[in-house]
Design brief:
Number of helices: 12
Largest sheet: 2 strands, antiparallel
Shape: globular
Radius of gyration: 22 Å
Mean pLDDT: 78
Low-confidence stretches: 1-5, 7-13, 17-41, 281-297
Number of domains: 1
Number of strands: 4
InterPro entries: TPR-like_helical_dom_sf
Distance between the termini: 65 Å
């Protein structure tokens, strides 16, 4: 069982399994039917989104609808990548590598890259700056770090819907500020708060390795034996001869969970497009009261 450790990175403790390094990636973006190749990470997609919004404004396309579709497209890409990475943690895949342990570490690092960068490279830098300057600054700056983490969560996890209750926020839009917050609460001794946020993270992403490990630490500190057993049973088994079967089951179970979330997201997107199309006056232009095309069409 992979139990997390509080790893010090530039003086910052975190629920982690490996060093956190942001890498530049090449991605294909498909937004509102426009394709472009990004060569500098998610900031390229942000620039493209700005251009698309400007174009849509010129032709009268609803910004809210467009924002929802862009966000959904990003989430689908991220989930698809997570499914790929989860599949690569399968023993059958890793055992084909010359160094399975090293390959596993690289895959886990890719998870961290993805989770930090879900809202683009610029936001990832902001999140890291909070770790180094506020969390790493010691207990005196931790209340400010808490406020900043909550601000990021409120700003990026409401899905553009201006949700009033923090409990309704969708953490899957950017999971890592919540994981940093859970870690901060653990460091502050606010164990109940830390546990609540770990549970919310794992509801959004049951395969989040950091939160899976972190919640075990929290339950141990709370003397919650049932919690320790519950979450230890959900953690990712080590890559060893004795636990190969358990690792296979863990990967297959979480791939299935991720695929279900992807399916639900796709259906949600389809329903949203259908509803907005039906309510958009532009789609009704040229239709008679009986739904027939007018002569000039």
């Amino acid at each position: 069982m992979l139990f997390a450790h509080l790893l010090l990175i530039s003086g910052v403790a975190a629920f982690v399994e490996s060093p956190l390094i942001v890498q530049r990636t090449v991605r294909t973006y498909q937004i509102s039917g426009i394709r472009s190749i990004g060569d500098g990470g998610d900031d390229d997609s942000i620039d493209m989104e700005a251009k698309i919004r400007a174009l849509n404004k010129m032709i009268g396309v609803d910004d809210k609808r467009n924002d929802v579709l862009i966000t959904t497209s990003k989430r689908k890409r991220n989930l698809e990548r997570e499914i790929e990475l989860l599949s690569q943690l399968h023993p059958d895949y890793l055992m084909e590598e010359l160094n399975p342990e090293s390959a596993e570490k690289n895959i886990i690092q890719e998870f961290w890259n993805l989770w930090y960068g879900e809202r683009g490279a610029s936001n990832a830098k902001v999140l890291r700056a909070f770790e180094e300057e506020l969390v790493g600054g010691g207990p005196e700056s931790w209340p400010e770090a808490e406020r900043e983490y909550l601000r990021l969560i409120d700003e990026h996890c409401d899905g553009g819907g201006a949700k009033k209750n923090r409990e309704d926020l969708d953490l899957s839009l950017w999971i890592e500020p919540a994981n940093r917050l859970a870690t901060l609460y653990y460091m502050m001794g606010r164990l109940d708060d830390s546990k609540v946020w770990c549970e919310r993270i794992l509801d959004a992403k049951p395969w989040h390795i950091g939160a899976l490990s972190g919640i075990i630490l929290v339950c141990m500190q709370l003397k919650d034996k049932e919690g320790v057993m519950k979450w230890a049973s959900k953690g990712m088994p080590r890559l060893s001869e004795e636990t190969l079967s358990a690792r296979k089951e863990w990967v297959e179970r979480n791939v299935e969970l991720a695929e279900q979330k992807l399916y639900d997201l796709e259906k949600l997107s389809e329903n949203y497009v259908k509803i907005t199309d039906e309510s958009d006056p532009a789609t009704l232009l040229g239709k008679s009261d009986h739904g027939e095309d007018l002569p000039w069409q």
